[in-house]
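Structure (tokenized):
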């Protein structure tokens, strides 16, 4: 399985779309972690989740939600780090 994954990733990189695939995986994982902690309706209601470099930009629907996400920022970061083999992401949370 890992060999096939490596071959696929190399092919995506050759086509120039590996960064987009990576960004989609990270943003989906972030939404899943938010859904675990706050519920699926909150995760689905985030206005924007985008990965730019190593920064995950999150636009919340309200100031209260943004505050809740900021309070859970370390736990969310740890969950992403565990899921992506030690990669660190900086979270920028806006309302």
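Design, position by position:
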């Amino acid at each position: 399985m890992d060999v096939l994954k490596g071959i696929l990733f190399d092919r995506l990189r050759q086509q120039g779309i590996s960064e987009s695939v990576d960004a989609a995986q990270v943003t989906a994982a972030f939404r899943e972690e938010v859904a675990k902690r706050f519920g699926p309706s909150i995760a689905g209601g985030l206005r924007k989740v985008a990965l730019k470099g190593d920064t995950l930009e999150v636009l919340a629907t309200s100031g209260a939600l943004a505050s809740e996400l900021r309070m859970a920022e370390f736990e969310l970061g740890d969950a992403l780090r565990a899921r992506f083999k030690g990669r660190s992401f900086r979270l920028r949370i806006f309302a």
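Reviewer-requested clarification: The chain has a mean pLDDT of 89. The domain at 19-94 is CATH 3.30.300.20 (GMP Synthetase; Chain A, domain 3).
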